[in-house]
Amino acid sequence: MCGLLTYISATASANSVLSGISGALTTLHHRGPDATGINVVGHDVVMGFKRLSIIDVENSDQPLEYSDGRYAITFNGEIYNYVELREELTAQGATFRTKGDTEVIVAAYHHWGTAAVKRLRGMFAFVIWDRLERVAFGARDPFGIKPLFHLMTGHGVFFASEKKALLPFCSWGDDTLDHASLSHYLTLQYVPEPATLHRQIGRIGSGESFTYRPNGPDSGMATRRYWRPEFRPIPQGDPELLYGRIRDALRESVRIHMRSDVPVGAFLSSGIDSTAVVALAREVNPDILTFTASLEVDGYSELPVAEESARHLGVTMHPVPVDAQMMMDALPRIIWHLDEPVADPALVPLYYVARKAREHVTVALSGEGSDEFFAGYRVYREPLSLKPVTGLPPGVQRGLRAVSKAIPRGVKGKSFLERGTTPIQQRYYGNARMYTEQEKSVLLKQYDPSVSHTDVTGPVYAEAAHLGDVEKMQYVDLYTWLRGDILVKADRMSMANSLEVRVPFLDYAVFDVASCVPAELKLPPRSAETKYALRRALEGVVPPQIVNRVKLGFPTPIRVWLRGEMHEWALHVLDSSKAGHLIDIDYVRRLLNEHRKGAADHSRKIWTVLVFCLWYEIFVSGSLDPRP
């Protein structure tokens, strides 16, 4: 796991940005504290790199050259099948100077061309420069585990693992703020890809590759999707065979994710996902260490269940206490690491868990991706509960829609009829729903009614038109919630502590079997369970008390703390904010006052604005500098 910063000039010598690259690399030090490399390739390409040594520790420094200097590569991530690919490439005549996975990527590109990216099993973002053909080729992994930002200028293009490394090479201020992305953030609690809050900076999408030619008739950058998830539910004759396939795929994925030349640990919560990963990792390393957040507020701590699981599995667990003061202390630095605001309070305990893990290991396994693959969110049951309405003829639905409008707000049945008569494309846009359009019209000083969440989800729904409603929701989450919140959280909080996090659920082979699970085995109609097939597959693998446990979802008690310990701090953030020309701060103060009195739970809405205010002070006004 590392940080890359590459510049390809289209107009002049790259030496003009050499000192800037060197300075910008320091902002990526946390991603790779073990080594720094800067190479000028030819006269018009600069490749910078910060390395966290995981595989082939003594060698494989980057930027790495291949084929007598024809190619140069910067690569962030891990290729788990690099051993098998190396053997195949060697049989085809490839030679290797290192024992790492970086050289395997560039050798695969040399021998197989752009099709090589489909052979890579892992998490990755890389840029390869071909000096002979004068073309750059790069890609990002299928699920978007690893980030890759780009900045196009009049003189060339920059690529970086984090947006902050690109800011020295472009203008930044209120005039470059992307107001559509801000509106989406206030709805979704994250900035959806491929945009950022900076109009000049974008992101390579998950499952995308690109080519960039600085000169010639085909000059410029072109991207393409080399992979996209295909849900193909198959009726099952014998469900036990399916459960066995799930178990085998996950066991093999965990095994291959354990490949490392440095110590590997794991995060452990009270849920089935991380517990399964730990149980299967223990088969490879019985002495694996685990790490768990402890939030000492009734109803929020996962520690007691995690401790019981650790005892059952016979693994050592390190609890990490997190309180309100720790939340307030760490949040500005966390937002600096994020680059873009993400209003998920779970970021903070994850930051502290990663920090504790780094004291003992360099790599940690985690359970992200299970809910999107196997239908783990309770909201996925909504199509089943709404079927009495959605199954009615269109004319009847229109009549019920009219009836719902006549029912007073708060009366039982109104919401059910509203949701049941609203097409799923308009009804579902992900797990987080912060501010409604009506609320944003008050909150935003520059509200644009033409900006809608359907701008983000519309193209995704178009690709999923042939799927059932549950699979549509899963597909939408893979392209929104998973890569916008879950994976940003995992990457930035681990890398903030120079820790590599690996996610065995987010694997080609695991998705191949997950994609075949029919809806009735994901969400049985006569049961309240989610990810039913996965739970059945893991019976006998995870402790019995975990198999059917209701998902807790790594909760953080900001609802409680914003009424108590964090109230004055929240007021101070609002009072000192320089973003008052963008956000109606008085409106948010009223929400905070109502929340403290217990009139309503506005905690997530308040938190969303607090995170943006701090982000604005760090990256726009410059009045706050939390850098380490």
UniProtKB/TrEMBL annotation:
Pathway the protein acts in: Amino-acid biosynthesis; L-asparagine biosynthesis; L-asparagine from L-aspartate (L-Gln route): step 1/1
A Pfam match: Asn_synthase
Active site: 2
Signal peptide, first to last residue: none
Positions annotated to bind L-glutamine: 101
NCBIfam families (alphabetical): asn_synth_AEB (TIGR01536)
Residue ranges of domain Glutamine amidotransferase type-2 in the record: 2-215
One of the GO BP terms on file: asparagine biosynthetic process
Organism classification: Bacteria, Bacillati, Actinomycetota, Actinomycetes, Pseudonocardiales
Similarity field: Belongs to the asparagine synthetase family.
Listed name of the protein: asparagine synthase (glutamine-hydrolyzing)
Top-level enzyme category: ligase
UniProt GO molecular function: asparagine synthase (glutamine-hydrolyzing) activity; ATP binding
Binding-site residues, ATP: 366-367
Annotated site residue numbers, Important for beta-aspartyl-AMP intermediate formation: 368
InterPro entries: Asn_synth_AEB, Asn_synthase, ASN_synthetase/amidase, AsnB_N, GATase_2_dom, Ntn_hydrolases_N, Ppantetheine_attach_site, Rossmann-like_a/b/a_fold
Gene Ontology CC annotations of this record: cytosol
Organism: Kibdelosporangium phytohabitans
Domain of life: Bacteria
Alphabetical keyword list: Amino-acid biosynthesis, Asparagine biosynthesis, ATP-binding, Glutamine amidotransferase, Nucleotide-binding
Catalytic activity annotation: L-aspartate + L-glutamine + ATP + H2O = L-asparagine + L-glutamate + AMP + diphosphate + H(+)
This enzyme's EC code(s): 6.3.5.4
